[in-house]
Amino acid sequence: MNTLKSLIGGILLASSVAASAFAAGVEVNASNTGLALQGYDPVAYFTEGQATPGDYKITTVYNDTTYRFASEAHKATFEANPEAYLPQYGGYCAFGAAMGFKFDGDPELWKIVDGELFLNLAQDIQERWEGDIPGYIEKADAQWTEIADVAPATLQAQ
After folding, report:
1. DSSP 3-state assignment of 17?
2. What is the helix (H) or strand (E) element at residue 47, kind and residue range?
3. How does strand 55-62 pair with strand 116-120?
4. Which residues of 80-111 are buried (b: 16+ CB within 10 A; e: fewer)?
5. Angle CA(48)–CA(148)–CA(38) in degrees, nearest 5?
6. What pLDDT, in 10s, does the model give residues 51-66?
7. Structural domain spans, the chain
8. What is the tens place of the pLDDT at every residue in 3-42?
9. Which of 39, 87, 127, 147 could be 91's S-S partner, Cβ–Cβ 3.0 to 4.6 Å?
């Protein structure tokens, strides 16, 4: 009986996590887990100048998405003004957004431009994006209004 209760509890928990990931996984890249930035600390990009994995014990939920932090201080900073630390285009690849697609942003391939955090998919994509950052941001901003609420797979199927 206890085994059955544990199994059912695990299924309910998995369903809850999946539902949360689905809700967050369109506009925000939550890697099908409900976890933003693949667990990297969003504040550290701005304060430490580097991609820093967050601690699984130091988290907060913002807009149905879980964020991890390297310290309680970073968590408090984020909670005071989350919008200042959120990655652009929901953490999807900035170059991909400019092309009208949503690809996973790699938290190790990032750049802060005019106080905003941008991620890209791969090193060669990052280098291409850096060739015309203002132009690609302008294109991505325009595309994002159309694709923000569209599932990545739907965009790729078009």
Report:
1. helix
2. helix 42-47
3. unpaired
4. eeeeebbbbbbbbbbbbbbbbbbbbbbbebbe
5. 35
6. 999 999 999 999 989 9
7. 1-84, 87-150
8. 333 333 333 333 333 333 333 446 888 866 789 999 999 9
9. 87
